[in-house]
């Protein structure tokens, strides 16, 4: 269960996180007055907030830094697989899925040239179908931030321009330097966690890899769309890159349209992205969805996000670790990103527990545990990463050979309809 949230910590801190009238403990006083903690986390998103709560629940003193505590408005991070729901429950944060108009999901409907195949999630031990959730991304983030702020061992701070602060003697990361209220500021901890998302500024300095993006998801919000199979995500396939559709609220449905770089039907000569949507996407959608899509198309407000791939590497910098999209990304077609992040936090909660690592100042022991994290996470994340990249390659079908694989993949799913289910990731 999430701790009771005081009124001043609700509504996403639209005016910035408040300072408490009285300190809840001595560690909180040190966090506010001396900017010292056991761990500093950069990024108040999916991974950062969840890790802050997990470590705070173990008695660690945590400072959570975020450049803006206003409710984010994004077109990705809206679909959570059953494995992610289970991880939130294990972290005591499942309540964060309540009160945000989340929609229960039970699997996928794959539509190939107008023919649909139903692929449900598997059953649990009690033969009950497992459930995912779809929602407005920002609403979940607000709830996670509220849970972090309500934890007596976590202090949330709004600050910008974070840079690493390293020892001039050892090179160990000692914390971060940033700008708070227009003034230079510092926050110190023996462990700094970078969870600043897909466009991480720290990644460029510390990791020898960079994300690769060959396409973008362009998103629209459909109002009162009629879906072929309510309660299921829809993947639409044909002679075009894949289209993903899922309901995110009582009245709202998200449609994400994959547009690879240099796609001819989205060229300027063919009307750009809007031309591709009108000339290619609209005629290919199930007839029941077309009216709401056409209305959204006329309204405009197109937004996009790069579809990035980033392979994970072992954390080897003393005093620093990466988490979430700053560490590892895969194509969002399968909606596995948040499930990976939440399960990573479950694993880190155990590997970095007080029993396993009494003091984060023992950087050798921390690095040893992070090496274990790199390998142990593969049992789940490698499945999600490989599945996402492989399915996208097949579903995008950019050449004739992949078209054959695409057709074969769909026919296998069609033959197994009623006998197969999506593995519970």
Automatic annotation (TrEMBL):
Q: Where is this region: Disordered?
A: 1-23
Instruction: Write one Gene Ontology MF term.
Output: squalene monooxygenase activity
**Where would you say this protein principally sits, based on its record?**
endoplasmic reticulum
Chain segments annotated as transmembrane: none
Q: Which residues form the FAD dependent oxidoreductase domain?
A: 38-68
The annotated topology with respect to the bilayer is: Multi-pass membrane protein
CC cofactor: FAD
User: What does the record give as the function of this protein?
Assistant: Catalyzes the stereospecific oxidation of squalene to (S)-2,3-epoxysqualene, and is considered to be a rate-limiting enzyme in steroid biosynthesis.
Tell whether Endoplasmic reticulum is among the UniProt keywords: yes
GO BP: any one term: ergosterol biosynthetic process
Reading the lineage from the top rank, the first entry is: Eukaryota
Query: What pathway or pathways are given for this protein in its record?
Result: Steroid metabolism; ergosterol biosynthesis
Q: Which GO terms describe its cellular component?
A: endoplasmic reticulum membrane
Q: Which lineage ranks, top first, belong to the organism behind this chain?
A: Eukaryota, Fungi, Dikarya, Ascomycota, Pezizomycotina
- InterPro entries xref list: FAD-dep_OxRdtase, FAD/NAD-bd_sf, Squalene_epoxidase, Squalene_monox
Catalysis: reaction(s)? squalene + reduced [NADPH--hemoprotein reductase] + O2 = (S)-2,3-epoxysqualene + oxidized [NADPH--hemoprotein reductase] + H2O + H(+)
Q: Where in the cell is it found?
A: Endoplasmic reticulum membrane; Microsome membrane
Q: What is this protein called?
A: Squalene monooxygenase
Record family assignment:
Belongs to the squalene monooxygenase family.
| Enzyme class per UniProt | oxidoreductase
Coiled-coil residue windows: none
User: What species is given as this protein's source?
Assistant: Arthroderma otae (strain ATCC MYA-4605 / CBS 113480)
Which residue numbers delimit the Squalene epoxidase domain?
188-413
